[in-house]
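Input.
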Amino acid sequence: MSPGQLMWRRFKRDKAGVISAFIVIFFFAIALLAPLIAMVYGKNPYDLYGQKNPELLDEFSMPTGVFGGVSGDHWFGIEPELGRDVFTQLLYGMRTSIFTALVATIVMVVIGVVIGLVGGYYGGKVDYWLGRLTDFLLGIPSQLFFIASMPVVVAAFVNPEEETPTWLRATAIVTVLSFLGWMGLSRLIRAATLTLREREFVEAAKIAGASPWRIIRKELLPNLVTPILVQATLMLPGTILSVAFLSFVGVGYVEPTPDWGRMFSIGAGIYELDPAYMFFPGVAMVVFVVAFNLLGDSVRDAFDPKSGR
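Output.
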């Protein structure tokens, strides 16, 4: 039986991991199919339904129905003041946050793997200076850096008087998050590479005249797939929270782009008057992050049974 089959067999025996995998797949499917679901539902996250139908909002611009205006027309209620549909906002907000975090995580993994492999394989001064760069970046307070650098990155490409395109804001978020997100993976890959480069198959490849690039690509990288996959699985939930954090403090996605963090920001301002508005995005965020963390633990245990919880 191959290592992959053994891993899959161990993973299937982990009920928490299997359930978490189904939950994560469900969230990704919902995010991917958000436009189709919204079309069938008959609403979108941009229309001001409360303004079109004054009966949906009271004199204080709060939803008139029970639990934030939940009804057959608006399954999760409507947003206070503007009266937008919460269900479609959540669908598109999940789509925005999940796929932004996914791209950022991929970039972080690529940077971390490349720097870790290069430093671990070549050693010497290359490893020394890459290590010092990693130590320096680890010393930067990440949240303060995110808040301070986002406006600078955006302003470098757009006049402050002009509206920033959503694609540029997404690119800036990915860039900022990726800048300080690769160091942990890089150290892990470096440590594994230092061990692998002394193995017999690597020495045999050197004797056979293989180039460093070929050794890294053909000998080292295939043996590092497991820690890379496990670490990437554990990194994604934290990246989603970081994307939401940037929007929550006002330097990530802004109106009218639906986003998880922006929904929390709106909810934080009106939770005393309409606590229901925060309920659905809050539950969705908690379920997704917990499920993904459990999935990451299960994947790690399936690859390495000795690390079992």
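The first helix runs from residue 3 to 13.
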